[in-house]
């Protein structure tokens, strides 16, 4: 089941986007986050772990922006 999270941030929009542009700020807050590596301004590699009860699995993803 997917979960939806939301919050109201009492800060100027420019500050929020400045924070969000740097994956190092918010990446570790993603559930299951293990690590990430920025390849260049358009690509990054991400590693996550998932837990399905008795099975624990690491998986990686390459993001292209």
Question: Would you write up a description of this structure?
Answer:
The chain has 65 residues and is an alpha+beta fold. It is 18% helix and 40% strand. The chain has helices at residues 13-20, 23-26, and strands spanning 33-38, 43-52, 55-64. Strands 1-2-3 form a 3-stranded antiparallel β-sheet, with no helix packed on it. The radius of gyration is 14 Å and the shape is flat.
- Considering DSSP H and I runs of 4 or more, what fraction of the residues is helical? 10-25%
Broad structural category: alpha+beta
Q: What is the general shape?
A: flat
- Output the strand order for the largest sheet: 1-2-3
Largest sheet: 3 strands, antiparallel
Cα separation of the termini: 26 Å
Instruction: Please give the count of helices.
Output: 2
The helix/strand series, from N terminus to C terminus, equals HHEEE
Low-confidence stretches: none
C-alpha Rg (nearest Å): 14 Å
What's the total count of β strands?
A: 3
How much β-strand is present in the residues? Answer: 35-45%
- What is the average of the pLDDT values? 84
